[in-house]
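INFO batch 0412 | record 1 of 1 | parsing
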Amino acid sequence: MADVNHHKHGTLRLVDKHGSHEVSSSQKVGRLQFFEITHRKKDGSPMISEAGEFMEKLKEKKAEYEAIASTDSSVNLENIDNRIITEVLGPESSQQYMPSGSQAQAEVQRLRDQIAQTQANTYDELQLQLQHMMQLF
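INFO prediction complete | emitting tokens
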């Protein structure tokens, strides 16, 4: 995964294991490049093994399209990223990102419990600090 640094002069700097790459703010980062940036660790390895497999398939598919485009001038590579991602990863679905009702309820309850525990720990810690301060006076 690349570190992303924003500069005041409208340049996005992507720093990865291969060096740095600068993209002007008016230039779009393609979906394939974005996928690769967001699915790599700082050391350059994939976040999970499946991400590495997908990245390899995405590269192979892009190479196929580039080979076809080199011999067929009617092939337009400008917006090919979406087609490649859809072919390799399948069509996007909002359901991929949203937990189902019972999963969402369980997650909400887990987070509520975690918040309550954090608050209780904070309260206990503050009580101990107060007692310690009272002993000083």
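INFO post-check: The helical segments are 31-38, 49-71, 80-89, 101-136.
INFO record closed
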